[in-house]
Write a structure and sequence with these properties.
- This protein has 315 residues and is of the alpha/beta class.
- It is 40% helix and 20% strand.
- It has helices spanning 12-23, 38-47, 50-53, 92-109, 122-133, 145-160, 199-210, 212-220, 227-241, 286-303, and strands at residues 4-8, 28-32, 59-62, 73-76, 114-117, 140-142, 167-168, 171-172, 180-181, 187-188, 191-192, 246-255, 261-272, 275-279.
- The strands form 4 sheets. The chain has a 6-stranded parallel β-sheet with strand order 3-2-1-4-5-6, with helices on both faces.
- Helix 6 (145-160) packs antiparallel against helix 7 (199-210) and helix 6 packs across helix 9.
- The chain binds 1,4,5,6-tetrahydronicotinamide adenine dinucleotide (TXD).
- 1,4,5,6-tetrahydronicotinamide adenine dinucleotide is lined by residues 8-14, 33-35, 77-82, 91, 95, 98, 101-102, 118-120, 122, 143-144, 147, 175, 223-226, 229.
Length: 315
Amino acid sequence: MRNKITVIGAGHVGETVAYNCARMELGDVVLLDVIEGMPQGKALDAYQSAPIFGFDARVHGTNDYADTAGSDLVVMTAGLPRKPGMSRDDLLNKNTEIVADCVRRASQVSPDAILILVTNPLDAMCEVARRVSGFPRERVLGMAGVLDSARMRAFMAMELGVSVEDTHAFVLGGHGDSMVPLPRYSTVAGVPITELLPADRVDALVERTRKGGGEIVSLLKSGSAYYAPGLAVAEMAEAILRDKHKILPCATYLQGEYGIRDTYVGVPVQLGRRGVEKVFEIELTPEERTALHASADSVKSLMDMLPASFEPAMA
Ligand code: TXD
């Protein structure tokens, strides 16, 4: 039997997630949005590419949560994107309302699903979903590190003129300006970039990675990035649904790892059919550790602004 994947929010990121999951034959996809007709139209268009591409996965558009029942994976992309000059945190209040409502409805009809959050501010939205769904931390995680690492890899390939396939990058921390790219763990064919580039070029790469989302927002003028974000989610979905035990940086609820507790923050985790199977604690220098803690503190201050209690999904 095929997996069932629900994507909530059929905007730029949602449609890209849905299309890539179908194209990769990860399962049948249900694309849901509040706007009537729009998810149905996009789903039909996506499915009409199946005969050309040659993938066997249905794509179904809907406005009704009943159609999402029994999903193995629910990807949450609904919410407002940033406008130029806005920080991800400026989206907190409106997107908290949207995410709480969507996760409540989705988790009621798919109580065994794994939830991947995409909506910004990412780490705080993961916490909203965890509290509303009541799911264990293994089944509520967020996409940011895969995208931020891909951005860093793209910048490394551009800077060094090498194949993107030879690059590997690690970006930890919250999905915001305080994220922590780790040049020591970022390599080209296994060689750290700190040995390949002068310090000022490494610093420039780190800075461009931190501001990678904002760079696209200001170029686009309206909306934010979606090709790389959509594919980053599909990579996580594949690791989970194909039980690959793949190690990827994901927003995860830490319970003492890295000396951080009760906060979502991006760290390397192993993803498989049960969701987050293991949190990896990699060796950090005192400076890297301080930066990770500062990033976790900024996530925590945002989490403190969330409503004290949410109506749980099973109420
Ligand atoms: O790395 C990351 N985590 C991110 C996050 C990378 C890129 C985008 N990131 C965030 O994802 C972005 O800041 C936004 O918060 C979300 C979605 O971004 P997208 O670019 O897809 O926004 P769109 O195109 O505006 O789409 C949002 C859709 C739109 O179709 C709305 O009608 C729908 O969300 N929406 C809803 N659907 C269902 N239910 C409700 N309540 C609802 N409200 C809005």
